Amino acid sequence: MAKRAAIIGGGVIGGGWAARFLLNGWDVRVFDPDPQAERKVGEVLTNARGALPMLYDCALPAEGKLSFHGSIAEAVEGADWIQESVSERLDLKHKVFAEIQAAAPGVPIGSSTSGFKPSELQQGAADPSTIMVTHPFNPVYLLPLIEVVPSEATAPAMVEAAKATLTEVGLYPLHVRKEIDAHIADRFLEAVWREALWLVKDGIATTEEIDNAIRYGFGLRWGQMGLFETYRVAGGEAGMRHFMAQFGPALSWPWTKLMDVPEFTPELVDLIADQSDAQSGHLSIRELERKRDRNLIAMMRALKQQGTSSGKLVGQHQRTLMHPPKDAQPMITQDRMVPVDWTDMNGHMNEGRYGQVFSDAAEGVMAFVGADEAYVSERQLSYFTVETTIKYLAETQAGEEIIVESRVTEGGGKKLRCFHEIKRKSDGEVMATCDQLMLHVSLETRRTCAPPEDVADKVAALAALHAEE
Fold this sequence. Notes:
Strand order of the largest sheet: 3-2-1-4-5-6-7-8
Number of helices: 16
Number of strands: 14
Strand content: 15-25%
Largest sheet: 8 strands, mixed
Distance between the termini: 36 Å
């Protein structure tokens, strides 16, 4: 039976939470009195369906069931997790928590608040031990950081359960050990935002120039290394101590207006809004969201390949989603979405990526017969591809869900021959085929050799199964 998440508040953040849980196989129940809630959540979910699966090299779990309810009590019925994402009004949040706890006592409640401390949220609560801050970042269905902030009244068991739940759906729970206004990340954002407002107000830079300073420079460094590790590198071989000694005195120079806030006059608002319109007003919000999502996917997939930062997290979550193929006729050795970074100038999957898909499919067959990563690293044996014949039969677009059906057509001696078919998951159309011949190799001598009996027997059995009509 699927786990159940209740989402209270179906705006941009609530919709992102709904999508994150739903696409990871949870049933999701939503309450939002807004008559447009179903449409708004539906639009967020449409973006998420075309984005989150692109991060992974395997299929996500079967999508859960989404339902909308007329009251908080109905929405939280049977919930394993409750996420509150209503407006940033403390009185409203207190009212919502009271209704939640009256209907679902003892269930963990996370709040998406970006500013309130958990002790403020818990004021007047029937059971403060279940309430904590779980502050996400937009889009919740792609960005993994969740600031988990308990108070002294929050039960430690609830905090650990929350961290386990968030990790299960591919998120990164950052446990903030002490309460502080705006938590951790938003304090950085606020500092940069203040400086940016002054730069625009004083006529030093436009909104586009400030965005360019971030996205062409330190934003890229921060995305894969963060702040302190970046500055450690800047210190050279002498490291952080040298960096601090060299640049620390600059902190007292009168550069920043960090503690001053420019007055939000109508003139300043018009100046910033007009510059923003000139910068990106030609794109709709939905177009900007898709652009943002695809950029994030490409960056996070690159980081996944390197096994670092948010990409490392995606890789760890992916390993919990992958399952070895079954000895069916044929075997399903790949089940995935084509990511945006696999397309060429014609807009479809390029030839090299077909080779990658078929290589991944072959590794699925190898793993089934026992020639897996441990086989390679511990026994120093493997199969090498020596010949492939690929036929391209139909275009494969980014965002399409595909499967690969594989059959062992020859499995005697040193040989392992497979025939793979890429099929569109929605209608079964064959999009490409590959005839692949592999030979068993000793990694110590880098020459062919007969496989050990345990692997040879499995290869032969699979070839016999796939020879049956």
